[in-house]
Amino acid sequence: MKRDEMGHRCCGKHKVKRGLWSPEEDAKLLRYITTHGHPSWSSVPKLAGLQRCGKSCRLRWINYLRPDLKRGSFTAEEEQTIIDVHRILGNKWAQIAKHLPGRTDNEVKNFWNSCIKKKLLSQGLDPSTHNLMPSHKRSASSSSNNTPKPSKTKSIMTNPTFDQSTTAFSITNVNPYTSNKPNKVKSPNQTTIPSQTVIPIDHTMSSLLNDENMIPNWSNVDGMAPIHEQAPMFSSEKAVIGVEDDDLNMDILFNTPSSSTFDPDFGSMFSSAMSMDFNPMDDLGWTF
DNA sequence: AACACATTCAACCGCCTTGTG
DNA sequence: TCACAAGGCGGTTGAATGTGT
User: Is pTM, for the whole model, over 0.90?
Assistant: First the structure.
């Protein structure tokens, strides 16, 4: 069955339109929400005069009609934020989107799947763990020509390096971010990443550490393999005995082996981030 | 110009969580 | 405590569009 045919499975209704929204439908929904708000999404279609289900209206509003949405390509800063937060939270798109004002979870998810994932893979990084993939480790150490087969999409980022002293992720020889979507209008204010950019961990980390959803879940980070399954990024692979879970998860978080090197500057930065006032990101909630 | 293939992203699906009676 | 409805979210799909040959 085609998407634009009538009928809907989620709500069991049959006279519900599906598929792309027409400008008229958008106008109806926008007009209704801006004047009445949405106390109950299930009642919105009827009240707004739309043959859509409530879920569809909610999605359309959140992903497209909301007036605070940011349009255009993701900036380099946004991209880095996504990478940083994804490394910690995994595929928690809604949580990641909270750190990017004006962006939706759907947008972040699509950007990840269509762009960032490929970049990481082209660097030999596992997109789910952000660690160097075993095959890439071998090729890197043996300097063989076992490089990933170039895809049709040109690789944008090359030669990632890791600044172990600050646990910051650095990127060398990075070209300005360009959308992979060809011939689409590109944002006029696209930013350029300097050839050697070291993104400090503080801004993203402090907001993460303040996130109400972060603190209680240190030991249960989705998308992260248990510590004994983590592929260590650095040389030390010694087992860690008698270390608290939180310590282990700090290691997961920053990809440094437990009880090995610890940078005092990073330590103070991290502890200051931990001591910051609790100030959870608001959930972009809309009130009328 | 025509076709095949690749890519993007809006929208849907289905599961899980939360609120309410 | 349970059942139900509604909302929220991540995964997936497929139409639209771009690119290569």
Answer: no
